[in-house]
Design brief:
The complex is a heterodimer of chains A (about 500) and B (about 375). Chain A has about 500 residues and is an all-alpha fold. Chain A has 22 helices and no strands. Chain A has helices at about 1-5, 25-30, 40-55, 60-75, 80-105, 105-145, 165-180, 190-200, 200-205, 210-220, 225-260, 265-295, 315-320, 325-335, 345-365, 365-390, 395-400, 405-425, 430-440, 450-470, 470-475, 480-500. Chain B contains 16 helices and 5 strands. Chains A and B meet through helix 1, helix 11, helix 16, helix 17 and helix 21 of A and helix 1, helix 2, helix 10 and helix 11 of B.
């Protein structure tokens, strides 16, 4: 009942990119106004797809694939049919590039096709996402140098960015590169390839799937599996809890403060930074968990995207646990081709800085994201340097490996990452104001909310993660009787329903 | 930190051992896997029990809100009912007088003051404030029906009469002011008779029960702990400060603080003028008032209409035709229904009216001290009346 009915929550509808001229798509937009997994319309849509999918006999594998392709197209088209056609068109082009690459053994031609594919994908990405940023920066530089630019600056808010563009662009690029390096065979089936890019659970905000992992799964006949259903339901519920009960609640702490940092005092600012760190994690990992859970229910396994990142003991460890699908993508397609850890120490540092800066730019076309990437690159370099320093300090190393030392490293990592989150916004000036408020005691407004619920949430979150990390949960979980586990899921859902604010906010990573 | 990378074997060994200690998994033996069939059955049992538990939890919440603890559904009314039961337990022999109206009554009638100034006999009326913020005649009737359904038998009912709320068109209608999630099953008779969109409201009532947890989450959470909401989001202003006599402490500008009152009045002025523009007394308002009076009388109780104080400035905001129509209507009601009117419109100096039509806390004290004896008079049989 609640699964299909919970969210009468007023979720701000994602405005369609263009006014759909076709009545069918307008109707579709009314049915599914926002592509968010925790909304009632999505759950109704998903329930419909799920029932139809499993009602198709197992031997009609292609029918099931087509059903998911059509459903995914409609999922996107409900928001904007023009952009849905664009995504479908580029996906078909990527499919053809892959096929052409498979048809020839001439290295130069293969390389030309690879660059065409990458160029097309990055071109579209740059046009939609980075055009405004680069043109406005160019405009500012020309004006500063005393030239007449000859074009007007673009209003960043007027630029429409197809949702999920950064995610599916990276998926398409990884496919082209993998086909070029002969890591995988080019996909011969168009519907399978369309499903690889358009599969709606990962279309909006990842995880970034690899063709090798996903396309293989499309060939396996799927059968209803209760184990898988349980995993899917569990992940979906955990994700919904993180999003509705934690992330949206933390937004009530941090949004008013971070959007108007001048007005608040330093204590409120520290609380807001803590709340934002919790929020962004629960928001994105909650979404990923729901995506993975939804995919499980359809018989697909998506890659894990988060692994308790705030329990990381250093920044390298953090990036092995945070947005794993992106960090491994950057590692495989940027860092390693640049030389990786081979070569001198300085080359290694240079590669890290380039990779992280690109990672920052991937998140958004603004200096704030670039500086965030640079800051993380710098933290990785500092960590590497510290490792070298520790090599000759056995007692220091031994101390850092103790429980106290591990706790200290976790705290320092969490602190550094949280400070970096301040930069994670388009307005760099605003970030500097936040830093000023954080490190120089300033008067101003206090938080409107009692800190009690913030502390309760933070402690609950870390306690849960510690339970998992310590292995205690792995021991308890299999011994729990089914009704207890099922009741626990129900309590988790109902708690999320009660704690969800009336005005649920959008997903942060939706904009990327 | 860093993995092995030094040349000395002892250090390497120590590092490795330390590293292994950190990354090692718990020492307890893993739970042996059951056969696949059993695991599938267990998984199915988990999913099924989850679905059953969700349904049961929803049913439990519906049951709790509609039967066991109705104040969860409508805390403003429910808290007053709980307080009234307590007062009746403390004063079992005194005749009950209920003041029913909107926020003006809620903030203006302060029974605690009557308890201080009353003569002190066993038969002094027991005044209780049963007003609901936003009530016009339809919601007054709804409250009255709830009161009788909950087993209260007042000896006298004071019904507020206030012309601005006799309008029922569009956004000025009472249906638009009252959250359908607060409605009880017993309210359906009133809804069907008076709500213009009764079917939609009834559907909403079903939905709020079907989707009980999510739809009522704010109310449930705010009644558990309002610290979970920022101050502007705490929609509990209508009931969180209720005293044990049902009085809602209102705005409290000091009598000499003209600037504060002026701010409040200026805030209200456009709203009031908007309400008076195109104002007509809706037939449903008239019908509801008549039905309320008839209901009280069939229950064997006395009833009176009360016109609460308004500042002189506020009275000037009434367009002449509205003023005239309201006077006519009130006179007709009193004449036809033979119902007494307690017209207190000019009783209170305007420095005790916070925004021109809501009594301040001191104003409520003064007003109730004066209202009490009149109310007591109404309870005396007509032959003995002073």
């Amino acid at each position: 009942m609640a699964l299909t009915l919970w969210a009468t929550a007023v979720v701000p509808a994602a405005e369609p990119a263009f006014e759909s001229g076709w009545a069918y798509f307008r109707w579709l937009h009314e049915l599914l106004p926002a592509p968010f997994f925790h909304t009632q319309p999505f759950l109704v849509f998903f329930a419909g797809v799920l029932v139809a999918y499993w009602m198709i006999p197992r031997r009609w594998l292609m029918a099931r694939i087509w059903l998911l392709v059509v459903a995914s197209f409609h999922f996107y088209a409900a928001w904007s049919y023009e952009l849905a056609f664009l995504v479908t068109g580029t996906t078909i082009a990527d499919y053809l590039f892959g096929r052409f690459m498979g048809l020839t053994n001439r290295q130069k031609l293969r390389r030309a096709i690879l660059f065409s594919s990458i160029g097309m994908n990055l071109g579209i990405l740059c046009y939609f996402k980075y055009r405004g940023f680069f043109l406005n920066e160019l405009y500012a530089v020309l004006v500063k140098l005393g030239y007449q630019p000859g074009f007007a600056p673009l209003d960043p808010l007027s630029i429409i960015i197809p949702f999920g563009i950064s995610f599916y662009t990276f998926e398409a690029i990884s496919y082209a590169v993998d086909v070029y390096t002969r890591k995988i065979e080019p996909e011969k089936s168009l519907p399978r390839f369309l499903l690889f890019i358009l599969f709606f659970p990962h279309l909006v905000a990842g995880p970034i799937v690899r063709a090798g992992d996903f396309l293989r799964q499309t060939r396996r006949p799927k059968r209803w599996n209760w184990l898988r259903v349980q995993v899917g339901v569990q992940l979906f519920l955990i994700g919904a809890f993180k999003k509705m009960a934690i992330a949206d609640r933390m937004a009530m702490f941090c949004d008013p403060v971070l959007s108007n940092p001048e007005a608040y005092n330093s204590v409120a600012m520290w609380f807001a930074v803590l709340a934002y760190a919790v929020r962004i994690y629960c928001d994105f990992s909650g979404y990923s968990d729901m995506a993975i859970g939804a995919a499980h229910l359809l018989g697909y396994k998506l890659t894990m995207n988060f692994n308790m990142p705030y329990l990381a003991v250093n920044v390298s460890d953090f990036w092995r646990r945070w947005h794993i699908s992106l960090s491994t993508w950057l590692r495989d397609y940027v860092f390693i081709p640049l030389g990786g850890s081979r070569g001198s120490r300085w080359q290694n540092y240079r590669n890290l800085m380039i990779t992280m800066t690109l990672g920052g730019l991937w998140h958004g076309a603004a200096w704030g994201y670039v500086v965030w990437g640079i800051a993380h690159g710098a933290l990785l370099v500092i960590h590497k340097q510290f490792q070298y320093y520790c090599d000759d300090k056995p007692r220091l190393t031994a101390f850092l490996e103790t429980a106290g030392g591990t706790g200290l490293r976790m705290f320092v990592t969490f602190f550094c990452v949280s400070m970096c989150w301040v930069l994670f916004q388009p307005e760099l000036g605003q970030a500097l104001t936040v830093f000023h408020k954080l490190f120089f005691i300033q008067p101003g407004l206090r938080l409107e909310l009692s800190n009690q619920s913030l502390w309760a949430t933070v402690i609950f979150l870390f306690a849960c993660q510690w339970l998992v990390r310590s292995g205690l949960w792995a021991r308890i979980y299999p011994r729990l009787p089914a009704p207890v586990l099922g009741g626990g899921y129900a309590i988790c859902l109902c708690t999320a329903l009660v704690l969800a604010p009336a005005n649920s906010s959008t997903f942060i990573y939706f904009q990327f | 930190m860093r993995s092995a990378g030094t040349t000395r074997p002892t250090r390497l060994f120590r590092r490795l051992s330390v590293r292994l200690r950190v990354v090692k998994t718990p020492t307890t033996p893993p739970v042996p896997l059951r056969p696949r069939m059993q695991r599938c059955q267990a998984a199915r049992a988990v999913v099924v029990s989850f679905l059953v538990a969700v349904v049961l939890l929803h049913l439990a919440v519906v049951l709790m809100m509609d039967a066991v603890w109705p104040r969860l559904r409508d805390p403003e009314y429910g808290l007053r009912v709980a307080a009234l039961r307590q007062r009746l337990r403390e004063h079992p022999n005194r005749p009950l007088v209920l003041a029913i109206g909107n926020s003006r009554t809620a903030m203006g009638v302060r029974p605690e003051v009557w308890e201080v100034v009353r003569p002190g006999t066993e038969r002094d009326p027991l005044l209780f404030n049963m007003a609901i913020v936003g009530s016009g005649p339809i919601l007054e009737l709804l409250t009255l029906r709830r009161v009788y359904a909950d087993g209260f038998r007042p000896a006298l009912v004071l019904l507020e009469y206030w012309p601005p709320l006799l309008r029922q068109d569009g956004e000025f209608g009472e249906a638009a002011r009252f959250d359908p999630r607060r409605l009880r099953w017993g309210d359906r008779a009133t809804i069907r008779s008076y709500y213009p969109n009764a079917a939609a409201v009834e559907r909403r009532m079903w939905l709020t029960r079907f989707n009980a947890i999510s739809d009522n989450r704010q109310s449930l959470l705010i009644q558990t702990d309002d610290n979970w909401f920022p101050r502007p989001w705490r929609l509990n202003g209508h009931w969180v400060d209720l005293d044990e006599w049902g009085w809602l402490p209102g705005m409290d500008p000091a009598p000499h603080d003209d600037a504060a009152r002026r701010r409040l009045i200026e805030h209200q002025r456009p709203l009031a003028l908007d309400r008076f523009r195109g104002h007509t007394i809706h037939p449903d308002s008239d019908r509801a008032l008549r039905e309320a009076v008839a209901l009280v009388r069939t229950q064997g109780a006395a009833v009176a209409l009360v016109y609460l104080p308004e500042s002189a400035e506020y009275q000037t905001w009434y367009p002449p035709e509205v003023e005239h129509a309201a006077r006519e209507h009130l006179a007709t009601l009193c004449r036809e229904l033979r119902v007494p009117l307690i017209n207190t419109r000019d009783w209170i100096d305007e420095c005790y009216l916070a925004d021109g039509f809501h009594l301040s806390r001191i104003g409520a004290t003064l007003f109730t001290a004066r209202l009490g004896p009149m109310m007591a008079d109404l309870l005396v049989p007509s032959g003995k009346r002073r």
